[in-house]
Protein: Haloacid dehalogenase-like hydrolase
Amino acid sequence: MTGTTPSFSAFTRFLALTALLALGMHAQAQTDPLPSWNDGAAKQAIITFVEETTMQGSPKFVPPAERIATFDQDGTLWVEHPMYSQVMYILESVPALVKAKPELAKVAPYSTVLEILKGDRAAIAKLTLPDLEKLAMATLTGMSVDSFSAEAKKWLAEAKDPRWKRHYTELTYLPMQEVLTYLRANAYKTWIVTGGGQDFVRQYSEAVYGIPPEQVVGSAVGTKYGYARDGSPFLTKEPKLLLNDNNAGKVEGIHLMIGRRPHMAVGNTSGDQQMLEYTKAGDGARLSMLVMHDDGEREYAYGPAQGLPATKVGAFTQALYDEAQKQGWTVISMKKDWKKIFSFE
Amino acid sequence: MTGTTPSFSAFTRFLALTALLALGMHAQAQTDPLPSWNDGAAKQAIITFVEETTMQGSPKFVPPAERIATFDQDGTLWVEHPMYSQVMYILESVPALVKAKPELAKVAPYSTVLEILKGDRAAIAKLTLPDLEKLAMATLTGMSVDSFSAEAKKWLAEAKDPRWKRHYTELTYLPMQEVLTYLRANAYKTWIVTGGGQDFVRQYSEAVYGIPPEQVVGSAVGTKYGYARDGSPFLTKEPKLLLNDNNAGKVEGIHLMIGRRPHMAVGNTSGDQQMLEYTKAGDGARLSMLVMHDDGEREYAYGPAQGLPATKVGAFTQALYDEAQKQGWTVISMKKDWKKIFSFE
Structure:
């Protein structure tokens, strides 16, 4: 027996060990990436899409740099009922505004908001979309970008949803979190494309979804550059809507901020319709999905024939459902497709 | 001698080999990341900045997610004389416009452009910034985003710089390419923040700089979503400036598109001043740099006391140089700091 043979055999054992490890990793890669999803068309559509677009040699292969997936937020990644959390934030910012300008207390929509905050929840129905825009502009105008961040962060750390008594940031859908993680593990860049305020969502997108601020496209007002008394530069929010990131605005926002057509998009109302049709109209593999809120027990039931009031900006109407069928978008039934909705269940 | 010892010794040898490999990798990491830079304050400032912000435990450590570096393009990453390449593109798009609307041939600024293209280079001086904006709007309005991409790509593949007789995309500065690569190897996200057209720069940013389209912030017009006769959706360019990405607009654009203050910024004219001061005013380690064009032999000499005409949008004036000194920005002398300017030298 020479000195070579045993070390060679040791090397063989090392190789075998490496192979075993590699097999282990492979086995791990084969475990279910979407454990909170029930088997069905929606889950299968996601897995097929990811496999077809990422497997080398696949006719539908998409180079990593072009792997863009966009997600609406309210109602798609987290709860939007009974009211968008950002609307609650705006309403709860009104008392400070009224304190600074007491004459507003008797003027609508400020007076309506004060009623709502005193407990008259039904008064929310009186607020129109232009009212909300007016309130949003009034509460943020002239605020520095840094003060806005600090106040939004403070509110998010304190405010709680009335039904679950949990922070809004806990009310994300576990199955969608799994989709985000699965896509990123396959070199997809995940983006939020929301009708909500871009600067608001950026305060928590990284901590809550693993999506960095620069991958959040949302409604945005302009800012103005200026200098403090000590000469240090800062940005102030201006009452000028730069991007209304709803409906066609979502596609325009995607072009402005991303510059490529997504390969996958998920939404839940007619405010997402254009994003879904634009995504689906691209060549190669494209996946458009609609989240349907049909689980009145575990979450809320609204949309086609559910009888619950539509959300302010868009709605999941029968027409939208028909459009999904016609264009080949995949509908996700929260009731049937999701084993678990929240991680705290 | 048992069977264990030799395999153990083989394992030891394996460990030693691994250690050697690791050392080799370490040695490689120690090789000069900026070989086209001469030793000096500018090179040292870059290396110190990267080491201080990326070494675990350093008091100036910056978490990877916050590592943002922004670069002006014209005059900072590539040649901007005698005229921005995009301005050449716009001028060379005018004949097609005049062909479609012959009445324009006798109206300024279209008539001026036709003179320039016939060979009267001096006539370029007649064009004002509003003229250029007017031409840009006229040549792109009503064009679909996809047609714009295709035409810009075609032009870039054909057009050549008059001095070097090379494609514009070959005229990037090798030392700056090294900085981009060095930053990315240290988990920095590199961004272009240009006064040039966002959609124009996005056509080549990935191939030329390794910077994907979504990391290009530039001047941008609005787009409008619509449908072709066959029902397929598309975006058309609108004659409405959404973002004028010059001066204070660069900081406003950074907030809109990135949402974080950069840790490093590089520019070369007063059009970059606000970006550089905003970057430098952040807490922790911040590096602001100004490229000074002082090499009339290898490139061009213009700026403080160089006598060459300033570029249209901004200029490297004596006042800007003084500002750099006052605020602690690092000035890069192309003549002294750069061993090589172009890769083809």
Summary: The first helix of chain B runs from residue 4 to 30. Chain B touches chain A at residues 3, 6-11, 13-14, 65, 68, 145, 189, 198-199, 202, 206, 212-214, 216, 220, 222-225, 232-233, 235, 242, 248, 251-252, 255-260, 274, 277-278, 281 (CB under 8 Å).
